[in-house]
From TrEMBL:
Keyword Zinc among record annotations: no
Similarity-based family: Belongs to the eIF-5A family.
Biological role stated in the UniProt entry: Translation factor that promotes translation elongation and termination, particularly upon ribosome stalling at specific amino acid sequence contexts. Binds between the exit (E) and peptidyl (P) site of the ribosome and promotes rescue of stalled ribosome: specifically required for efficient translation of polyproline-containing peptides as well as other motifs that stall the ribosome. Acts as ribosome quality control (RQC) cofactor by joining the RQC complex to facilitate peptidyl transfer during CAT tailing step.
Subcellular location: Cytoplasm
GO function terms (MF aspect): ribosome binding; RNA binding; translation elongation factor activity; translation initiation factor activity
Sequence ranges assigned to domain Translation initiation factor 5A C-terminal in this UniProt record: 84-151
SUPFAM superfamilies from the UniProt entry: Nucleic acid-binding proteins, Translation proteins SH3-like domain
InterPro entries: IF5A-like, IF5A-like_N, IF5A_C, NA-bd_OB-fold, Rib_uL2_dom2, Trans_elong_IF5A_hypusine_site, Translation_prot_SH3-like_sf
Species this protein is from: Rhizopus delemar (strain RA 99-880 / ATCC MYA-4621 / FGSC 9543 / NRRL 43880)
Gene3D superfamilies noted in UniProt: 2.30.30.30, Nucleic acid-binding proteins
Protein name per its UniProtKB record: Eukaryotic translation initiation factor 5A
Alphabetized SMART domains for the sequence: eIF-5a (SM01376)
Length: 157
């Protein structure tokens, strides 16, 4: 009995990280999980049915967080996982030790999102230091969060 109770402690709020979708229903610019990574489909093609009767779907996808390219070949009738992706905009309050201090819509602070690496992070930091009011878009998928874009907040908010 104690084992059964223990399994509930590790469960999340019921939101699944992924959901299944038949390969033939996937579309270009949609999302899919390849090798355990959330990816955006950039190209896909379907081969004819072979002698064993399954059309194959060839997927080319880019990891939404790292930009790495992945390819996968799967029968069109099989299910593949599609990541549940959420986008949320936050106001940037501060940049502290490689992390963004963000304000949520309800006025709470969120400070567990890393400053993006490379040019995006450098530009974000430079514009913030210029005193610009910035909104950062944080994308969440499969338990990972990344700041992928930002823009200047409209004046008069």
């Amino acid at each position: 009995m104690a084992d059964e109770e223990h399994t509930f402690e590790t469960a999340d709020a019921g939101a699944s990280l992924t959901f299944p979708m038949q390969c033939s229903a996937l579309r270009k610019n949609g999302h899919v999980v390849i090798k355990g990574r959330p990816c955006k489909i950039v190209d896909m093609s379907t081969s004819k049915t072979g002698k064993h009767g399954h059309a194959k779907v060839n997927l080319v996808a880019i990891d939404i967080f790292t930009g790495k390219k992945y390819e996968d070949l799967s029968p069109s009738t099989h299910n593949m996982d599609v990541p549940n992706i959420t986008r949320q905009e936050y106001q940037l309050i501060n940049i502290d030790d490689g992390f963004l201090n963000l304000m949520t819509q309800d006025g709470n602070t969120k400070d567990d999102v890393k400053l993006p690496e490379g040019e995006l992070g450098e530009t974000l930091e430079a514009e913030f230091e210029e005193g610009k009011d910035l909104l950062v878009t944080v994308v969440t998928a499969m338990g990972e969060e990344h700041a992928l874009t930002f823009k200047e907040a409209p004046k008069g908010n």
